[in-house]
Amino acid sequence: MKTKHIKIAQVIIAALFVFAVLYFVLGITMDRKDGPQKAQMRFNTFMVEASTIAAKYEPNSPAFNGEFTQLVIKYQKDLASLRLDVNSKRIYEYPTESHTSDVVTHSFSRSTPTVLGNTLTVNATMYAVNQIELYSYARISFILILVGTVAAVILLLIIQFTAVPHYRRLKQDDDDIVFTDESDVPEVARNEEEENEDLADDDFDPISAMEKENRESSEDISFDEGEFIDADESASEAEKTDVRAQLLLESELQKAISESSQNDNDLAMMIIRIKELREGSEKEKAVAAVLTEKIGNMGIIYHYNDGFAVLIKNTNLDTALATAQALYSVLSHNVQEINENDSIAIGLSSRCERIITSQRLLTEAEQAVLHAAEDKESPIIAFRVNPEKYRQFMQKNN
Predict the structure, then answer these.
(1) What is the pLDDT of residue 129?
(2) pTM of the shown model
(3) Segment 198-204 long-range contacts (CB within 8 Å, at least 24 positions apart)
(4) Cα separation of 54 and 66, whole Å?
(5) Does pLDDT of 13 surpass 90?
């Protein structure tokens, strides 16, 4: 269920609750406001029928008592109390036992002649708010609230089982990188901040800096003799699984960065790490199959340490985030080999108009996936930088 649809459903449910409360409160308020006039009208109608019975039968006669009892039953929902007097002598009282009520009432009294010329006096106390109408307001409001509650529960279940996880971005704004505390700042982020400070230094030598970065990158890369893979063998493996060997990643990424710079477009690097993902296992094969199906021609997939790396060309960071969300949802819900204890972490970074090395881009994505693995609430983390200082530096030194 899309976020937009969820928000619309939340608004509808909230509106339903508000409408139920307003319906109940306004209904009672309006009835109380119009209560005296309505009570008077109901008493007038009651007296018309009572006068008709008194004109036909003498009070206290069996015929009078029978018809008058039926009249009282008919108006029982409106009557709080009723007394009949004939020539000041009490002949009828309803209810038989007096009781108090918190409901607003209005009292009325009127006399009418009987068939034998006696005087029948009616003293009635009428409810200002009809009891049945009051219960009707309460019943309809309860049904509306019940419907809203059921809808809210269904919505929560939908969100629980289909919602895409939240992600946060490692974000650099001008001179500061925003994290919860200083200890959370990845090493690559601190390096980025130091470089931005160097850009303001007039004595900064770009060639020396690039050579230094390249030397550091070279020093960080080491292979055991047994790790080298024959190119033909790698190509054969790629044709079978659509997942390339890790050995090919750095060189192909550097080539893609160069092409991206020349064509003035962006590219993104995604690293997917799954707990206890062993090479050649059924779990790894299942994940590779999902990545191959979902990524397709959009990117290139590589084996990478205890997971996978995906190079996505002509893609900015926001689009890559949307892709990562979709992949996470499929991997966490639709792959039988992955259970709830197998934590999935995804880290992303992009070239973002910068001139950088493949090692640097991989390091940024690595730092992002490390933070994603540690933060259970944010299994998808993107490393975002501000390229403005890079452009300012290049314009200044050209």
Answers:
(1) 72
(2) 0.43
(3) 199/389, 199/390, 199/392, 199/393, 204/393
(4) 12
(5) no
